Amino acid sequence: MTTPPLLSAQGLHVTFPGRHGAAHARAVDGVDLDIRPGEIVALVGESGCGKTTLARSLLGLVPPTGGGVTFDGKPLDYSSRALKAYRKRVQLVLQDPSGSLNPRHTVYDAVAEGLRIHGYGGDEQAAVAQALSRAGLRPPERFFLRYPHELSGGQRQRVVIAGALVLEPELIVADEPVASLDASVRGEILALLLRLRSELGLSALVVTHDLGLAWNIADRVAVMYLGRVVETGDVEQVLTAPRHPYTQALLSVLPEAPGDPVVLTGEPPDPSRIPSGCRFHARCQILASGEAERAGVADACRGQDLEVLDGSGGAQVACHWARAALTS
């Protein structure tokens, strides 16, 4: 944990104005998160928790309304010139390869697009071939003149990854990188990302709702709920001994999980009306079962706010009950 982070968010807030004078939606509501060189961090949570907005803010696509982002020790500059240089070093891999690729562009043009935007002065064809080869499309020349509709889903996702790799970035942000792929292909893409980390020293933030994916690929996991990270730590520690009731509920529905699945009641609260106390308390199975009452923390769960977890990566949890259990 002594290595300085490559990418860091400090007290990050992103709010969106409500319609017709309604309260602002606090999509990201105070997040600290560090990603170190060569590290893969999984950002996990259900739909609507703010993880994609956080990722977009880290990429400079959504300016924060509070806090800030630093990259390689320097605050992110939101001028057009600075963002262009930043996006050469930090690349995005989207969920849907079919939507990411222009159906009228060949594979060659899709991968070469980044080079052309950034005014690459070297051998374009050699760079495209190397990126395709690194992404597992070999021999690369065989794919140059193909169109997306001529490829399988896994091959399309490899083209998207090649398009990110061609600029030789230091970090990639992968938003649900295997969600649209068949189970047989998912493992191949995950193995590819791990190989790229070992061969190129690539860092990655993998945004996902799938804890099984996090287990297979990440060094560290950050579990997000209603705009905040509520539990973080080494992936094995968090996913084998989860302390936050929300993490426990997410893990309980995996096929290999012991015991009965925890079915959370209702939907996540409206981010424009975040409840007081623990933001998960309205759906918390520990509070509903009376366990929090027996531990003497039920009132704190309902009314005492929890501080923002720091981004250092040590094992942390934002839960009154879990902290009480640790000290008892």
- What is the number of helical segments per DSSP (H or I, 4+ residues)? 14
> What fold name goes in the CATH topology slot of the largest domain?
Rossmann fold
Total beta strands = 11
**Class from secondary-structure proportions:** alpha/beta
Description:
By secondary structure, this protein is α/β, with parallel strands linked by helices. The protein is about 35% helix and about 20% strand. The chain contains 14 helices and eleven strands. A seven-stranded mixed β-sheet has the order 6-7-8-3-9-10-11, sandwiched between helices. A four-stranded antiparallel β-sheet has the order 2-1-4-5, covered by helices on one side. α4 packs across α5 (about 125-135) and α6 runs parallel beside α7 (about 185-200). The chain starts with 6 loop residues before the first strand and ends with a helix.
List keywords for this structure.
2 domains; seven-stranded mixed beta sheet; 36% helix; four-stranded antiparallel beta sheet; ATP binding; ABC transporter ATP-binding protein; Rossmann fold; 11 strands; 20% strand; alpha/beta; globular; 328 residues
List the helices and strands and how they pair.
Blueprint: E1 7-16, E2 25-35, E3 40-44, H1 51-58, E4 66-71, E5 74-75, H2 80-89, E6 90-93, H3 97-100, H4 107-117, H5 124-134, H6 153-165, E7 171-175, H7 183-200, E8 203-208, H8 211-217, E9 220-225, E10 228-234, H9 235-240, H10 245-252, H11 285-288, H12 291-294, H13 298-303, E11 316-317, H14 320-327
Parallel strand pairs: 3-8, 3-9, 6-7, 7-8
Antiparallel strand pairs: 1-2, 1-4, 4-5, 9-10, 10-11
